[in-house]
Design a protein that fits this description.
Structural class: mainly alpha
Distance between the termini: 24 Å
Low-confidence stretches: none
Oligomer: single chain
Largest sheet: none
Radius of gyration: 18 Å
Length: about 150
């Protein structure tokens, strides 16, 4: 495990994820003037920590192994799947959850069913994914090229 912690590619992958999670709290504090520590462990929101992580991984591998390496190809495939999932599938699930919550609110007022809420913040807007990707690329590039 100690070797993993000192692996520069692992650091360039996970540190942007941590930074994105912390940024979610900071952005919420600045924009809405509320401190929500739960955002440190939540999915969804600005910026996408998933995008930051996979784009950081691909960037670190590109810098370390080159864009012609098999590892880079694998990283890009993972990047595409995660990015599509964050901005496409999970975003659609978020929209559906919001609509279902509205239907339950309107049809089941006063019923115990109306007390149960579906989680609405699951996916990301394209801007949130782009911000996470940019964070991952910049962080990983700077991390991997430092002396």
């Amino acid at each position: 495990m100690e070797g993993f912690l000192y692996n520069r590619i692992a650091q360039a992958t996970f540190l942007p994820w941590v930074a994105a999670q912390v940024l979610k709290v900071v952005i919420q504090l600045v924009w809405k003037r509320t401190l929500n520590i739960k955002l440190l462990t939540s999915a969804g929101g600005m910026p996408s920590s998933h995008a930051a992580m996979v784009w950081g991984l691909a960037t670190a591998i590109a810098v370390n192994n080159g864009t012609s390496s098999e590892l880079f190809v694998i990283a890009v495939v993972v990047l595409l799947v995660v990015t599509y999932d964050a901005a496409g599938i999970r975003r659609a699930a978020s929209i559906q959850a919001r609509i279902l919550n509205q239907i339950i609110d309107e049809l089941f007022q006063g019923h115990p069913l109306s007390e149960t809420r579906l989680r609405e913040l699951l996916g990301h807007t394209p801007i949130e994914v782009a911000a996470g990707a940019l964070l991952g690329i910049v962080w990983a590039y700077l991390w991997m090229t430092r002396t």
